[in-house]
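Researcher: Here's a chain I'd like modeled. Treat it as a single chain, no partners, no ligands.
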Amino acid sequence: MIRILAFLTLLLPVTAQAQDAEPHMTIGRMAQIVLALDPEAAVAGPGFSFVIDDIPVLIVTDISANRMRAMVPIRSADTMTAEEMQRVMQANFDSALDARYAIAQERLWGVFIHPFKELERDQLISGIAQTVNIAKTYGSLYTGGATQFGGGDSGGLQRDLIEELLERGQDI
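Model: Modeled as a single isolated chain. Structure tokens:
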């Protein structure tokens, strides 16, 4: 029976999911998405700077390496305590989700890193929202906001930002 099922799957037409796949990400497509999120965004070659919920966001891309990085500055890293460092590492494991805390140039950043070409619209929007959320919740919940354990109000408030940004980019 298993052999018959395996053989039949070879005969089936391409799935609707493969037919409905988004086109590969391009700088132009990314610019459309970013401008939908913030019409005042600055586009400079393969990079973008804009503001979401009063948080500055930078996106840098490297097409030849097929990478992109969305990042937000959080604070100076040189005065972080061992406890704060441990907490951001714990958050990277369980609550930051697709965003991550990172240190570069003596600064703590929230970052979302993804292969550029394969990046889909909703992944980009969600990654930006999660990165903004980990900056906003630094010092308290340390969460990307897409999944929250517990019964408090924070999960709903953080999820609202993701939903709002997804709605703004819906028609792209």
